[in-house]
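Hello again, I could really use a second opinion on something today. Take your time with it, there's no hurry, and the full record follows here:

___
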Amino acid sequence: MIEPSSCGVLLRVYVKAPGEIEEVVARTVLSVKRATAAGFGQVVVVIPIDKDRGTPVGEMPEKMNGLGVALTMALVHNGCENVPVIVVHGNENSDALNAGVRFLKKFGTTHAFIVSNEASAMLVPENVWALCQAFDAGALVAGLAFGELYVGVLLGRISNTFAAWNIDCLREVGGFTSEQGVEEITPMLEMVRLYGKSIAPVLPIFEEEVEIREAAGARKRHKMGIDSKTSRQIDEAARIGGSLDDLAEGILPGYPK
């Protein structure tokens, strides 16, 4: 039986401007506390330094390292000194997440829950156990279907806004890879090809609205990401000779539920 204590939570955070650090730190500390309260064995925070994400290369490391220092100090101040904060140079949609998964594996973690700050209010025992039960039923990847992601996730397009992965199987298929910000698509397609039906869309037992950042432009960026998500997923699947229909066909029997 998979239990939260054998699982870990991976939080990926970043800022667009130095003025956003305080808000991001506060949101991340809250997410860490939620994960701890839900019984997870380990939490890790990853800060990507991606030179291709809209900020001059010379400015990016300074901002992200500033976030790392501020976040580490805040976690210690809040009694979360055992939560590592790692800065990763590379693509935020693949390199950063793969580094975080490797880090969790070092702690003996079997399954990685990847959750965004905006969805961390749903890190409650009821939802966590629902995903653990999906793994017990044979899933290799599971995710919550909620809000704007509801329909897509029900169709097998699990989103790392709130998802959980079998670490060994994820690494077996090469981990995350994407140039389009939909890093979940390729490993899910490869899992279905290698292992068969293994995707579990899960309906949340406890659902909250996503908590969008207050920083300037955050809501606009969120909307743009949601509006373009399906087209980016289609392109990503086609890149490796697959389609979104393959994901729907790869859903584990008995799911969604």
Observations:
- The chain has one domain: 4-249.
- Confidence is low (pLDDT under 50) at residues 54-60.
- The two ends are 19 Å apart (CA to CA).
- The first helix runs from residue 21 to 37.
